[in-house]
Amino acid sequence: MARRTKAEAAVTREQLLDAAERAFRERGVATTTLGEVAAAAGVTRGAVYWHFRDKADLIQALCERATLPLDAIFQRLRTEASDDPLGALRKCAIASLTHLARDSRAQAVFQLVYQNSGVDDDLAPLASAHERERCGCLNQVTEIFERAVMAAQLPADTDPALAAHALHAYMSGLMQAWVREPAAYDLAAAAPALVDAMLGGLRASPPRRAAPSGVVRDAAD
Q1: What structural domains and CATH numbers belong to the chain?
Q2: What's this model's pTM, rounded to 2 decimal places?
Q3: In 80-116, which residue ranges form alpha helices assigned H by DSSP?
């Protein structure tokens, strides 16, 4: 009986998370009450508080249930050794776009994180998830660009940190725009071309570190 009760509780928890995803996307996080989440899940309000302390705890559980798209980039880059740093970065960036395109949970959490962060103190988990993803991704991608410089895939005076910020801004902006209008195009199919457009630009004309005072950089460099 105990096993059955535990299993039933797990099912109820998933139902609440699914209902919260739908309600938050339809009505917004700040204006959706836990009572409305409970009603959408077909359970009592008490059931919500059995599983989650408050709305912030519920949101945290949503974030933990789905892997954020950009988070997938640096998770894979940590484990993927390669003599081709930019090739590895390309592969992981394409994978992150494909993950977003094909995973409805990732889409829901991404939308929550990027559209609702900072709206209310109760929504701190969204801001935390956003900042955690941003910092982790930037640090890892900066390291990849540093490796690309060492491998002579980019000029020696390339600014890896600035290149990482540029790529992150491009990817996050692309994702935000697509989530708002997913019917505009097939993101998974377009992912290679979209990533190549950005990385091709960085290869051709990367951001450079400031030249030492009195040194004039050759325009052909």
Answers
A1: 2-55 (1.10.10.60), 66-204 (1.10.357.10)
A2: 0.74
A3: 85-102, 104-116
